[in-house]
């Protein structure tokens, strides 16, 4: 193990990522085909996406607006003038025999993604159309082609080769996915292919500046697999070079089951694609007035809200980070505050019981049955001591989820979980506990004051959760200290 670590220390890892971001537009990039996921094969196509002769593509203005929106969030330079190029290569699922993309004048350049591990610089982001999909396991004798995806609008984000570890790549993709979802640019669903990542990986002797020969690992379908693939490919390259071998520039795939990268083909250079400006699509402009209007319509970004939550509402940083993972969750939190709930209890409920519901049902907060004002009423019942938190979370909340229109206070009374403050009842329960535990009473009176929690717990059991803990604690202390 020490030998492997020593070899790793002799080399520096250099990674650049290419991320394909499928845009949430109502139609494809150059035609009106639908863009829904999961439709029957070859049902979301048209003469334009099938590349029939004589068809004329038209640029989707919504795709340009979403590109500008992301560019503003990532501090990119937005090109005032941009155009499309043809990128020629043959795939059976690319009907035209070329891909309409951008090479010389991408719509966005520069910018960065800020992560907890530092900022990752962006080289450029360009618009392009997607290819179709080849399916090799649907028929024993033939490969099947589904062209529903052909022409889907993509942004391809290309970072500088500035990432130095798989952890940095993981942090970058996590933050980027949060941002594209927040801005409603992309749904970020890597399992469905709407966010895909290729990693360009190389190594070089530590302390040198010349880039090593890069290997591109293609079509990584989860952030975790990006991290694992980088580590696996780095280990392969170090072992190869350390044994006297030479890294070959190529494209490789990643097998998650064996945690290895596998060769696919030699890597093409840019001139292999025979780029030239697309004659069917005129150049387009991003006017200052259009950019200003898009900027004015953008929501507060997650890091700005995170700072607001920690300063204005005095939330711990960890709470603020969880609440800003999704835009809809942050909005629900602010709706709770608008309904009168206090910040910290609201955060506790969202991070605790509500998040548990989201995880169990595999749904986001937008599907949560209770409107914010209803959950705020539950929080108020707990804060005023009418219902304790445990009973509210385990009994009242599930009952309300089944009957969202019910009044929380009335339902708590029906469930018999309203905390009992009647002095006579509390006195009975406290006396029963103290009489049943004489040894513990003596220990408490000799100085083991921590036993108060044991007594309170026993009273809660006897009262079936109805005893008010604060009133019980006060009564216990009076009796034990008498």
* Helix percent band: 40-55%
The outline comes out as: elongated
Structural class: alpha+beta
Low-confidence parts, pLDDT < 50 over ≥5 residues? none
Q: Roughly what fraction of the amino acids lie in strands?
A: 15-25%
Largest sheet: 10 strands, mixed
Radius of gyration: 30 Å
- Beta-strand segment tally: 17
Instruction: Estimate nothing, just give the exact number of structural domains.
Output: 3
Give the overall average pLDDT: 90
Helix count, DSSP H or I runs of 4 or more residues = 16
Properties at a glance:
16 helices, 482 residues, 3 domains, elongated, 18% strand, 17 strands, Arc Repressor Mutant, subunit A
Describe this protein's structure.
With 482 residues, the protein is α+β, with helices and mostly antiparallel strands. It has 3 domains: 2-290, no CATH class; 299-415, no CATH class; 423-480, Arc Repressor Mutant, subunit A (Orthogonal Bundle). 40% of the residues lie in helices and 18% in strands. The protein contains 16 helices and 17 strands. Strands 1, 2, 6, 7, 8, 11, 12, 13, 14 and 15 form a 10-stranded mixed β-sheet that branches. A hairpin with a 4-residue loop joins β14 (250-255) and β15 (260-266). α3 runs antiparallel to α4 and α6 (302-311) packs antiparallel against α7. It is elongated and about 90 Å long.
Short summary:
The chain has helices at 2-9, 61-73, 166-182, 223-242, 288-297, 302-311, 317-323, 327-338, 343-361, 372-383, 389-402, 408-415, 423-436, 438-445, 452-462, 469-480; strands at residues 11-22, 77-78, 81-82, 85-88, 98-101, 108-109, 112-115, 118-129, 133-135, 144-146, 153-159, 195-205, 215-220, 250-255, 260-266, 276-277, 284-285.
């Amino acid at each position: 193990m020490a030998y492997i670590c020593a070899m790793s220390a002799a080399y520096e890892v250099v990674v650049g990522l290419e991320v394909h971001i499928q845009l949430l537009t109502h139609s494809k990039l150059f035609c009106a085909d639908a863009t829904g996921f999961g439709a029957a094969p070859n049902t979301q196509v048209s003469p334009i996406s099938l590349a029939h002769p004589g068809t004329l593509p038209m640029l989707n203005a919504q795709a340009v607006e979403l590109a500008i929106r992301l560019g503003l969030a990532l501090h990119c330079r937005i090109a005032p003038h941009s155009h499309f190029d043809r990128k020629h290569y043959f795939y059976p699922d690319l009907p035209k025999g070329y891909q309409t993309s951008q090479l010389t004048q991408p719509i966005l350049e520069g910018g960065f993604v800020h992560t907890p591990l530092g900022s990752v610089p962006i080289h450029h982001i360009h618009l392009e159309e997607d290819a179709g999909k080849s399916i090799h396991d649907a028929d024993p004798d033939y490969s099947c082609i589904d062209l529903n995806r052909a022409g889907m609008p993509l942004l391809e984000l290309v970072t500088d080769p500035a990432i130095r570890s798989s952890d940095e790549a993981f942090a970058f993709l996590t933050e980027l996915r949060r941002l594209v979802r927040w801005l409603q640019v992309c749904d970020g669903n890597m399992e469905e292919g709407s966010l895909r990542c290729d990693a360009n990986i190389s190594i070089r002797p530590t302390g040198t500046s010349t880039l090593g020969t890069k290997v591109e690992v293609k079509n990584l379908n989860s952030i975790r697999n990006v991290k694992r693939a980088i580590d696996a490919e780095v280990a392969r390259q170090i072992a190869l070079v350390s044994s006297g071998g030479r890294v070959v520039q190529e494209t490789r795939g990643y097998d998650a089951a064996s945690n290895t990268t596998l060769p696919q083909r030699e890597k093409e250079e840019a001139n292999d694609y025979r780029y030239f400006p697309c004659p069917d699509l005129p150049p387009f402009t991003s006017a200052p007035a259009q950019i200003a209007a898009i900027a004015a319509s953008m929501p507060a970004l997650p890091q700005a809200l995170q700072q607001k939550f920690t300063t204005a509402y005095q939330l711990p940083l960890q709470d603020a980070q969880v609440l800003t993972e999704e835009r809809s969750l942050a909005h629900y939190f602010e709706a709770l505050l608008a309904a009168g709930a206090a910040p910290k209890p609201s955060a506790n409920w969202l991070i605790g019981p509500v998040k548990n519901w989201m995880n169990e049902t595999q749904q986001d907060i937008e599907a949560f049955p209770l409107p914010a004002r209803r959950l705020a009423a539950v929080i108020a019942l707990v804060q005023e001591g009418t219902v304790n938190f445990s009973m509210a979370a385990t009994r009242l909340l599930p009952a309300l989820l089944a009957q969202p229109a019910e009044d929380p206070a009335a339902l708590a009374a029906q469930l018999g979980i309203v905390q009992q403050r009647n002095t006579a009842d509390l006195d009975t329960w406290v006396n029963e506990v103290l009489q049943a535990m004489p040894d513990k009473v003596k220990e408490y009176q000799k100085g083991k004051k921590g036993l108060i929690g044991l007594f309170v717990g026993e009273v809660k059991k006897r009262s079936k959760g109805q005893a008010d803990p604060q009133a019980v604690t006060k009564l216990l202390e009076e009796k034990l200290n008498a």
